[in-house]
Amino acid sequence: MVTQRDGSEIDLLNSSIRTVGGALFSTTVYALTGIVYAAVTSPAITGRYFFLAITIQLVLRPIKGLGQTLQKIGSERGESVSAYLGLTVIFAAVYLTLFLAALSNASVQRLLTRVTVFDESLFLALALLAISTGGLIIAQSLVAAIGYPSAGTWITAIKATLQMGILLGLASQVTTTADLIFLIVAVKLVIATTVILAINTAPVLPDQRELERAWGFAKWSIPDQILDRFSYNMPVYVLGIVATPAAVGIYETADRFADFGATISWRLASPLLTKVSGDTSLGKSSLEYLDAAITGGTGATFVVLGYLIAGHDIIANIAFEGAGVEAFSATALLVGIINILRGFWTLTSHAMEGAGYPSVSFRTKLYGLICSVPITAGLGAQYGALAGAVGYGIMNLVIFVYVVYYARSVLGAVPVDMTLIIKLIGGTVVSAFVTWATMEIAAETGASPVGVAIIAALTTLVAFAALLGAISPETRTVIRRAYNIYIGRYRNIVQNQF
Questions:
Q1: C or N: which end of the chain has fewer Cβ atoms within 10 Å?
Q2: 366-to-59, 232, 369, 399 alpha-carbon distances in Å
């Protein structure tokens, strides 16, 4: 049985390093899945799957909202994780029952078939996808609530790796969208069941006080999680209605690749929320670690931008051909640029959420969507994936401005370390140059396009880390701590055995 910890008891740096380890793994696989799915099946099948899977994730965001409540309040000193787990399980069971009942209605299915890329033959596949996704949401919220937020990234890493590996192994058998969904459902169910059984925390019914506490947070967390998912995948939802499945496939494949850095920032938001929640529950108002944690947490978005500036064309030629190359290339570059802002506001919003202000996160996303959805819808039919990137950029810019505005009153200041920002910009310039030079050299040696892209990515990451390590004492501290966590510990184990 796993030992439970309060949020105040976790070491934020250690937890963040472990989170980054899982995030690097899971996000690499996540970025590759778009390309692999499109290559193994087709852009149309991939686009249809992405639209349906992402829509299911949006519909299930109320469950995620209760899961966020479980993580937030469960990580506070003296609270019962079992009670909030019980509330989450009950809510999820009722919500899924109502959702599946509505989806089984013939009129609803005909409407969805007429206005989206949904097909009536996919009902069973989508029902199982909803159940397995809900179970995985609960499992990941539970591990964060008991004081191990970094474990969530490793759960995602294992799931994504199994999904892609099995897909490659069964490539000839996966010929439809339903086949792809059934494969992913099986992996999710196995992972969620294993995690919940391993934690061995039984759900119990909450009392009146616990219900009131949960409602105080969930009344904002539930709508915020709906907007969170919609804002993250807004271009896919809109393009799925006004454009073609191919446009959806191109945008989502580009987004998965360019979103590497922002996804790591999003993963780092989980330990940050848990830590802030635990500290504020003890009455701490001085959170001196915020500036470095939030600014440093955006670091991966800078190195990804440097890579995309020099390498977006070669990646486009690997995944697509014809008109898809230009659309992918431009989309990936625009998303990479704007994700620097997304990484910052994601971490800052979660810090404010951990401090007990989920309403702020809800408001900022609402403002961003109001400004961006009409533009994406208006341009989508003509410009396809590129329109999605433009709408995504406008949305994130608006959210960023409002997050900065609210941070002054909630946190007392904008949590940014300007010295570190300057160093990260320098790292971006170096990353772009190293990527370009590496790709030129690798291409001259006769390496395949895939080989060129991989070699350049690894070289760029090493160059970025080396530069930051040379000019930033804080980076050197992180590198030493990461070495002790991932290498030093296992070296000691091996030495002690001989």
A1: C
A2: 17, 12, 5, 8
Tens-digit pLDDT profile for residues 298-342: 988 999 899 888 887 777 777 666 656 777 888 888 888 999 999
Neighbours of 488 (CB within 10 A): 13
Contact 167, 40 (CB under 8 A): yes
Dihedral pair phi/psi, residue 43, rounded to 5°: -55, -35
Q: Determine the structural domain holding residue 98 and report its residue range.
A: 7-416
The answer as to whether 32 is a domain residue is yes
Q: Which two tokens stand for residue 244?
A: 């073609």
How much is the average pLDDT of 256-279?
Answer: 84
* Residue 498: pLDDT over 60: no
Give 116's DSSP letter.
Answer: S
Check if the beta carbon of residue 237 is closer than 8 Å to that of residue 314.
Answer: no
Contact 396, 345 (CB under 8 A): yes
Query: Helix 358-383 vs helix 323-354: angle between axes, to the nearest 10 degrees?
Result: 170
Q: List strand residue ranges (DSSP E) for 377-437, in order.
A: none
Which residue bears the tokens 């969170």? Answer: 228
Q: How far apart are CA 393 and CA 372, in angstroms?
A: 8
* Chain position carrying tokens 């469950």: 63
Strands (E), 231-313: none
CA 29 to chain centre: 12
pLDDT digits (tens, 9 = 90+) for 95-139: 999 999 988 888 877 877 776 767 777 788 888 999 999 999 999
Handedness of CA 326, 329, 330, 335 (dihedral sign): positive
Domain-embedded: residue 242: yes
Nearest of 24, 46, 23, 216 to residue 117 by alpha carbon: 46
pLDDT at residue number 260: 79
Question: How far is residue 403's CA from residue 368's CA, in Å, rounded to a whole number?
Answer: 11
In the chain, how many domains are there? Answer: 1
**Cα-to-chain-centroid distance, residue 347:** 12
Please provide the distance, in angstroms rounded to a whole number, between the alpha carbons at the two ends of the chain: 29
pLDDT, tens only, 464-475: 888 888 888 888
**439 part of a folded domain:** no
